[in-house]
Records
---
Amino acid sequence: MDLAMAGAPPERVVSPTPADLRALADKYRTLAALRARREELEGLGRAGFDEAEGEARRRAFRRVAHAFPGALRELDTCSAALLQKKAEAVEAAAARDTSAIPTWIPVVFHFHHTLREALAIKLWLARRLGRAGTVTDAIVDEYRAAHPAAGTEVDQAFLERHLHPPGGRVLALVWDRLGRSHGLSAAQIREAVFGDPL
């Protein structure tokens, strides 16, 4: 299925700042520690955490998920060692000129930003229209008034895709948008975000 918006130009990619990179590195360090502890317990044949540790992990999950939507999936797709290597690579990138960082890092940064934005649009629409609603010209006008920075990209079709994303999955919109922005396939983007791009 072609998810691209007909005639839509590639989107401008916002480069992560050194502060963004430090936050991204912190995400990877946190995920690496969470995954390492899980691997440690699995190695001992244990499947769960005691109540206090479980609650501390849930707090860490919420913090990471709030700052970086979609990040928790990396706990299932990456080892602790890989997450630690990603943290080190991002830390190294933060210490040098951000125009010379590896390609996968801005892709990951843009993934989290784009997913957050898509989820916010979907939530805004769901609160006004529910699941079965239809996007009207009045809804488009209301959205544009509430989000003036959205510009002319926001039309009825754009909002309809967010209210009813392909296959019911917001990630389909994210893969499409990142593909247009970075000139990559969905598989390449998934590998950068959830695999081993190093």
---
Amino acid sequence: MTTHLEHPPHPHMLVKPFTTHSAIFGVVLKLIREHKKIKQKAVSTYTHMSISSISKIEKGEYTINLEFLCKASVLYNISISKMFELFENIILFVNQHGIEIKEDSVEFRESKMDDSGIMIMPMFGKMLWQYVKNSKACQHIVNDFYKHIS
């Protein structure tokens, strides 16, 4: 499926955006961490991981393991099932907006043109974060979630 993003890279250019499950879960973890006003340094200390690793998890550059998920759940004082509830809702949002979800082992992370002249654009890290945070369509999902975890 091709789509027009809210802010495409060039006017009238068709783009075919994609992301990964790790990138979406990274956004979930960052949304929760920032809502709870917890610094990456505190997460780093609690999980015994570097701040750089925490940042890469939140950008979707690293996949998380069960140990990290359990520690994050305790630190953020939120159940794993609640985390997955937001994850599922953001996946639905992403799918509804024409963003394909690929396997985490995707071979490239830079935009490129396909054979038909459509821009294939990966959405990771800051780009995905801004899209989710700034999209009016996603605000009700996030705000509703915040009401249930505060």
